[in-house]
Amino acid sequence: MKHINQPKSFPSSILSKQEATQVVRDENLTKIYIQLFQQKLLIAQKKRHWTQQVTQYILACPIGGQPTLEEVAEKLNMTTRSLQRKLKQENTTFLEIQNHIQFERAKLLLGNSHLNISEISDLLGYAEPSVFRRAFKRWTGKSPRDFLKNMKS
Fold it and tell me: What is the distance between the alpha carbons of residues 69 and 65, in angstroms, rounded to a whole number?
């Protein structure tokens, strides 16, 4: 039963309460459940299609060159309103995707570079370091400097 000992990772929201709490002791039934969960995971991933498309497009742009909603919608051959609707169906917004990418880039730059906060805020396209600091504090509850101290300790 090697498949039981291997870690499986998936969002718990795709399971019903009964599926999530049921203990399975039969090997054949376990295989069936694993297949069922994999199918549900695939369906959940397909539901995030537009989020992935937008994320990939934004990531392909240079750091600091955040595309607008209009630019991304045009690239995906749809109106801005259609893109907003599709993202809403996937329980996200364009701004949430942009913020997530900015946060990940900020963490990467803070942790893996010798750049100061001013240089990082410049690279990420912020008009002023104070705007970057406020955004970072909104994301983490900490200033970039405090976040960096916690990362290093």
Answer: 13
Count of domains observed in the chain:
2
> In the block, which residue shows the tokens 């995707």?
97
Backbone angles phi, psi at 122, to 5 degrees: -60, -50
Report, in angstroms and rounded to the nearest whole number, the Rg of the chain calculated over CA atoms: 20
pLDDT tens-digit map of 14-41: 555 555 555 556 677 777 767 666 666 6
The whole-model pTM stands at 0.64
State whether 10 and 60 are in the same domain: no
Q: Do residue 59 and residue 91 come from a single domain? A: yes
Q: What is the CATH number of the domain that holds 55?
A: 1.10.10.60
